[in-house]
């Protein structure tokens, strides 16, 4: 089950913790997106965080692109009309605006949390 999270609180924690909350968010969002998209190959949030740290953030950029693909799959399966955010997530992550990605992804995930 996907938990609804407060978007303003995520933004505040992102800045107050100097980005540490971002790493936590990568972990929980991985699990949430797997649930929403019915991904059979469950991914580990801890592995995502570790790879993001070890690659100095490069894996995180790739991760955002994949999240967009998984959310597009989930939206198509559930009949939710939306556009693909994969490229948007990728570009925002490339230029250092991952906090906007957090807001966009959590907004989509909250829609699924309200359905349950």
Evaluate the radius of gyration.
13 Å
How far is the first residue's CA from the last residue's CA? Answer: 7 Å
Instruction: Kindly estimate the percentage of residues that lie in beta strands according to DSSP.
Output: under 5%
Which regions contain 5 or more consecutive residues with pLDDT less than 50?
A: none
H and E string = HHHHHH
- SS-based class: mainly alpha
**Can you give the helix content as a percent range?**
over 70%
What's the rounded overall pLDDT mean?
Answer: 91
What's the arrangement of secondary structure elements?
Layout (H helix, E strand, L loop, with lengths): L6 H10 L3 H17 L8 H10 L3 H21 L7 H9 L3 H18 L1
Helix pairs in contact: 1-2, 1-6, 2-3, 2-4, 2-6, 3-4, 4-5
Describe this structure in words.
The chain has 116 residues and is mainly alpha-helical. The chain is built from six helices and no strands. α2 crosses α3 (45-54), α2 packs across α6 and α3 (45-54) runs antiparallel to α4 (58-78). 28% of the residues are buried.
Question: Nutshell version of this structure?
Answer:
The chain is mainly α.
Kindly list the characteristics that best describe this protein:
single chain; 116 residues; mainly alpha; globular
